[in-house]
Design a protein that fits this description.
alpha/beta; Aspartate Aminotransferase, domain 1; 2 domains; seven-stranded mixed β-sheet; five-stranded antiparallel β-sheet; binds pyridoxal-5'-phosphate
Length: about 425
């Protein structure tokens, strides 16, 4: 077989390949469901582009202040249409997901206000933004306090604790959809809707923001369809479709998004400024591709879960659970296994396949992190990548793949490196 021969030349053994084919045989139905979701989301994006009359003239570069940038403004309306929100802020001036979340939080929280996370500790980088770990310019420094309601031991919402945590000063509730670097489950949009409804029943005027990183286009609906006042994410994850080289988005109510724009640029300027510098073709085209790119990544995640589960590793989510994001955690149990896994992902990359990942310090993270990525866009995690903090339970967080075929090959190569190091027996 020609493919197998090529794979063998690339370092993949027949034994690992066959193991993968066995796992795949049981996934047909699951993959069909993913394709159906992708078709719906593709239609949503297409309809939004048609409704907002996107034209070739909207791809033109602007410079300087960027006044009257119709392409930029129209892209924001396309996002707002897809997320069913009044407004959207989608900008290359938002440097990453953490920045988008920082803008959303600091724009909508004032001194004396309290922020509540009803889903336990937020993502590592957010901890410094909030001031859970002290940092210059944190929300805590500006007099915004923070409260947290932890999840139940089973990973569900602790509604009583949430009710107790909401008080007169609670202004904004931040709900992280994806597990991030934790091994709790990611929440479905329906679950998030229930939590939002509960919070608003306790305090009707509270702002509910969802950290939607890695969740976009995984389901038929988004958090803004179930009551979220803002959904926030990164363009070098799902919605950038692998083509956006930078950027973040905030979709939500006009009141919230207006404030975000004033925080991002300056009071009085808001969304009126911000030149696009020629980046719009990648933003539009990436958003157009995002539903199918996300589908490919989702197939990779499920394939990885099934494969590693079969070898006795704990996978979160497991091979059969409903998905709400593209992240797959695999608890590998040792630093050596994390290294081997990441080496495999790296060796499978189109870029920097010859590099060997090693653990290192990362800004915003309190333990060493190992990362494997051979990406066209630096740090892009909609591209095939694996990373994780080097600390027990030595879980590797695997995500992305611009194509399902590449995701599959990368996962097989991770297993190959584990087998080569004698860490698994096939
Ligand atoms: C990736 C991520 C972020 C931060 O995004 P960056 O682009 O890495 O700054 C925040 N929250 C969650 C859940 C994420 O997955």
């Amino acid at each position: 077989m020609e493919l197998l021969q090529l794979y063998e030349e690339m370092g993949l053994s027949e034994a690992v390949y066959r193991r993968g084919e066995e796992v795949l045989a049981a996934l047909e139905e699951r993959f069909r469901a993913i394709d159906r979701t992708a078709e719906l989301n593709q239609a949503k994006v297409l309809a939004a582009m048609q409704k907002n009359r996107v034209g070739a003239n909207h791809f033109a570069a602007t410079t300087g202040y960027g006044y009257d940038d119709d392409g930029r403004d129209r892209l924001e309306r396309v996002y707002a249409s897809v997320f069913h929100t009044e407004a959207a802020l989608v900008r290359p001036q938002i440097t990453c997901g953490t920045h988008a979340l920082t803008v959303a939080l600091s724009a909508n929280l004032l001194p004396g206000d309290e922020l509540l996370s009803p889903v336990g500790l937020p993502y590592d980088t957010l901890q410094e933004v909030i001031g859970i770990r002290p940092s210059p310019c944190s929300l805590a420094e500006y007099g915004v306090t923070y409260r947290q309601a932890d999840l139940t031991p089973e990973g569900g919402f602790d509604f009583d604790a949430v009710r107790r945590a909401i008080n007169d000063r609670t202004k904004l509730i931040t709900i992280q959809r994806s597990k991030g670097y934790a091994t709790r489950p990611s929440f479905t949009v329906e679950q998030i809707g229930e939590l939002i409804a509960f919070c608003k029943s306790v305090k009707p005027d509270v702002i509910c923001m969802v950290d939607n990183c890695y969740g976009e286009f995984v389901s038929n609906i988004e958090p803004t369809d179930v009551g979220a006042d803002m959904a926030v994410g990164s363009l070098i994850k799902n919605p950038g479709g692998g083509l956006a080289p930078i950027g973040g988005y905030i979709c939500g109510t006009k009141a919230c998004v207006d404030r975000c724009a004033y925080r991002l640029s300056a009071p009085g300027l808001g969304q009126e400024v911000g030149a696009n510098l020629g980046i719009l073709p990648a933003f539009y085209q990436g958003f157009f591709l995002a539903p199918t790119v996300t589908a490919g990544a989702l197939k990779g995640a499920i394939f990885a879960a099934k494969l590693y589960e079969g070898l006795g590793f704990r996978c979160v989510p497991n091979g059969t659970e409903v998905r709400s994001d593209i992240i797959q955690a695999v608890e590998l149990g040792s630093e050596a296994a994390m290294l081997a896994f990441c080496r495999g992902i790296q060796a499978a990359a189109p870029v920097d396949s010859f590099a060997a990942p090693v653990p290192g310090d990362m800004p915003g993270y309190d333990s060493q992190v190992i990362m494997a990525a051979g990406a066209f866009v630096q740090g892009s995690s909609i591209e095939l990548s694996a990373d994780g903090p080097v600390r027990p339970p030595y879980a590797v967080y695997f995500q992305g793949g611009l194509t399902w075929q590449h995701a599959k090959f990368g996962i097989l190569m991770s297993l190959q490196k584990m087998a080569d190091a004698g860490l698994v027996k096939l």
